[in-house]
Amino acid sequence: AVLLMALCSSFMLQTAYGAGECGKTPINTVALSLSPCIGAANNAKASVPPACCTQVKKVLKMPTCMCAVFLSPIAKQARINPAVAISI
Hints:
88 residues, mainly alpha, 7 helices, 0% strand, globular
């Protein structure tokens, strides 16, 4: 029960302060920051640029943010393949 209350409190605090899946940063902003990854996110055989690795490391600190980015309208417009992108 204590764990459940702690989780609920954490969720309520995030909601109260306007934090979403990516904290206070809009999902589209995070998605755009991953633009160096476009080639590698669409082609499993493409090399992954160092700039992509840097951004992915930042976003992976919040796994729910990465999921939200994969499901975002920007990712869909860019035709990102989540199965390939997750392998970066």
